Amino acid sequence: MSDKTSEFIPTSSSLLVRIKDWNDAAGWQLFCDTYRKLIYNTAIRAGLADAEAQDVVQDTFLSVAKKMPEFEYDAARGSFKGWLLQLTGWRIKNQLKKRLPAEPMDRRPEAGTSSTSTARRVPDPASLDMTAVWDEEWQKNLLDAAIERVKQKANPRHYEIFYLHAVKKLPAAQVAKTLNVNVAQVYLANHRVAALVKKEVRRLERELI
Q1: How does pLDDT run across 22-32, given as a tens digit for each residue?
Q2: CATH tag, 1-112+127-147
């Protein structure tokens, strides 16, 4: 399995067992490679800058490391995916709070006034529908994983046609001219590989926990 493919593989129960051990460097590397892009992209879409999003990734991984020794996966209580989203959301909120300057003492509202508190003025990632953003990024990871896996077992010529037409969005006529095939061959190869990708996505979805 290629290193690139491992970046998108959904978490399996066996990997969760591995990262309970802080000394399992290979397991933690696989976990970080799997989720770094997902967490980072979600933070960026929540409005954070690059450095802030990088901090969210680091802080989220640190939170996972602290909680994993006692973590017990229970499907009835929700997915690991949902739990990780919750941790990520908290770290994003923390970064947004850091943007606010300290409020001078003489400008702070007195007790009992109706002025909005500093905490309440912090943008709330939930208002951006974080779950929808997370799910969208998750699906992108699944699709990337499926495409990468299909690439390793599909007819190389068919995959090249699919990549140019479906991924790079080149017109069928241009793909045909570039690869010296006819348009009908482009449509047929694209259809075959796309079917394999859809099948692989469904298989990956069954692996999710």
Answers
A1: 888 988 887 88
A2: 1.10.1740.10
